[in-house]
Amino acid sequence: MVDRRAGVFLVFAGMCIALAPVAEPEFRWVCVTFAAIYVLLSVASALDARSRSRR
Hints:
The protein is mainly alpha-helical. Helices cover 76% and strands 0% of the residues. It has one domain (4-53). The chain has helices at 4-19, 28-53. Helix 1 (4-19) packs antiparallel against helix 2 (28-53). The protein is elongated and about 45 Å long. The model has no long low-confidence stretch (mean pLDDT 91).
């Protein structure tokens, strides 16, 4: 099972992407940047959980 944190980070990334169209155009980059950061955190969390379960 994937670490629960990875799923939460993916939900946060989805929320950021969902909010991007309604954000002011000059601040849309913030939504996209945070979505990318949350995806990276999700991948890192999943890899961490996988490496811990292999011990």
